[in-house]
Design brief:
Helix content: over 70%
Number of helices: 10
Number of strands: 0
Low-confidence stretches: none
Order of helices and strands: HHHHHHHHHH
Radius of gyration: 20 Å
Number of domains: 2
Structural class: mainly alpha
Length: 143
């Protein structure tokens, strides 16, 4: 009988803890951003660092909302996206339209989705569905 009681209590406590964390995740991400800026920037720019799924989802949501305003997608996301298309940044940088592609990337309307996709190792087919530079990358990859 004591085992059943402990299991039920642990389950209740776990649900409460998960709900509290889920409810406070947005504030937690903002707190890390404003109170530990360099750490937040490292998390944002390191696409390999594992993050708790809720924390990652909230970072992506805040990116989609335009926060932080100093994030530069063309610096962090575009090189990885180009690799998905079989391109190297050094080669593309010599192309006449390179600066226009960077500008498009920095103004991307789906930067949060892109950030999550690059972190997840999305394949090129998935990237074509949302990347505003996909056609330009495809043209360059075709030679």
């Amino acid at each position: 009988m004591a085992t059943a009681q402990t299991t039920r209590t642990a389950s209740w406590w776990q649900r409460l803890t998960e709900r509290c964390y889920a409810t406070s995740t947005a504030q937690l991400v903002r707190d890390v951003q404003y109170q530990a800026g360099p750490t937040y920037d490292e998390l944002l720019n390191d696409l390999e660092s594992p993050l708790e799924p809720g924390f990652e989802r909230e970072m992506a949501r805040q990116l989609a909302a335009g926060q932080p305003s100093d994030f530069v997608p063309a610096r962090t996301l575009m090189p990885v996206m180009m690799q998905r298309f079989g391109l190297q940044e050094a080669e593309v940088a010599a192309e006449p339209g390179y600066n226009a592609m960077r500008k498009t990337c920095n103004g991307c309307p789906v930067v949060g989705q892109c950030w999550k996709a690059m972190r997840a190792g999305a394949e090129v087919e998935a990237c074509r569905g949302f990347c505003p530079n996909a056609r330009a990358f495809d043209r360059l990859a075709a030679g």
